[in-house]
């Protein structure tokens, strides 16, 4: 049985005081919660600080990005080896904000996926369609294309011990969210798409939902059979709201 993962993406938010308050609050709110993996991904400058705050916790340390190189003349970039040494285990790649603002292609993201796997880190691969693509009925084609970039470069078994986060771009930060039925249909498509090549890989891969997940809509989303937790943006910046989402995932998947 897949263990859900709820991961908080802080994006370009935070300070040392905010990190201290948030982590302290999460450890208090989530004491004794079982059945759900929990991760947070602060900005890279706070990784070492947050890692120390998490030293007595089961909360996983994540990062928001990685470079395709391990070292060299790549000013401003951070390598997988550096992240690993800081205590990071899970790394978000392919987020729509990186695809859009930094013009990251499917093939470039696949290279990032590969460097993470080589360094025994868990890729959290974000995929999803724009509002225009959704309205044109292209959701499945877009998701398949983004997944196939990984498979073409690395093979389907690269999705062993990996995470996919389906994040419809039209729902990120907009307050809109796919209905549980809509999200489930896409998640099932993603799993079935991978299963065409390897049913065992498809059965174990964690597929999160992201896109305005909050403490109000999380419980109903998590009742869907192919939704294995969430990648959470704004609601992950508030300990009480994020804790409600984690508890909802743990409760839904314990049944």
Walkthrough of the structure:
By secondary structure, the chain is an alpha/beta fold. The chain has one domain (5-254): Alpha-Beta Barrel (TIM Barrel), CATH 3.20.20. It is 44% helix and 15% strand. It has eleven helices and eight strands. It has helices at 16-29, 47-53, 80-86, 96-101, 106-118, 131-135, 139-154, 180-195, 199-204, 218-222, 239-254, and strands at 5-9, 37-41, 60-63, 90-93, 122-127, 163-166, 206-210, 229-232. Helix 1 (16-29) runs parallel beside helix 11 (239-254), helix 5 packs across helix 7 (139-154) and helix 7 (139-154) runs parallel beside helix 8 (180-195). Its main location: cytoplasm. One of its GO terms (molecular function) is triose-phosphate isomerase activity. Keywords: Cytoplasm, Gluconeogenesis, Glycolysis, Isomerase.
